[in-house]
Design brief:
By secondary structure, this protein is α+β, with helices and mostly antiparallel strands. It has a 3-stranded antiparallel beta sheet. Strands 3-4 form a two-stranded antiparallel sheet. Strand 3 and strand 4 form a beta hairpin. The longest helix is centred in the middle third of the chain and has 22 residues. It is flat. The termini are far apart. 0% of the residues are buried. The C terminus is likely disordered.
């Protein structure tokens, strides 16, 4: 890795106002590093797209950001599934209602009932 400056990147899935902050720095790839994306189109033709040479940095901070993003965005994400499948949405909405009605976490509650 060289001493390239760290860039802050904000990622989103366009769900609510949530975004995930990660940090990346440019690097010099060593022989054998995968620096392109290979894919096939609908006609089964092989393509290759070069990727920019960046890697994640500040991993402990990024891990914390991932955890926070999941916690903050999970309900909005689940609600976004409403238009996908009526049966799936009914199942999810019942589970959300159940989880919101409990004073303790679902898994903790479940394990207490099983003991």
């Amino acid at each position: 890795m060289n001493d390239a400056p760290v860039k802050t990147v904000k990622l989103t899935q366009n769900i609510g106002q949530h975004y995930l902050t990660v940090y990346a720095a440019e690097f010099d790839p060593s022989p054998g590093y995968v620096v392109s994306y290979k894919w096939k189109d609908a006609m089964d033709r092989q393509h290759e797209t070069p990727m920019p040479h960046y890697c994640l940095t500040n991993i402990p901070k990024v891990q914390n950001h991932f955890k926070r993003y999941i916690e903050d965005a999970k309900w909005d994400y689940l609600r976004s599934l409403k238009d996908e499948d009526q049966l799936a949405w009914m199942t999810i909405s019942m589970a959300m209602s159940y989880a919101n009605s409990k004073q303790v976490g679902f898994l903790q509650h479940f394990s207490q009932e099983c003991n």
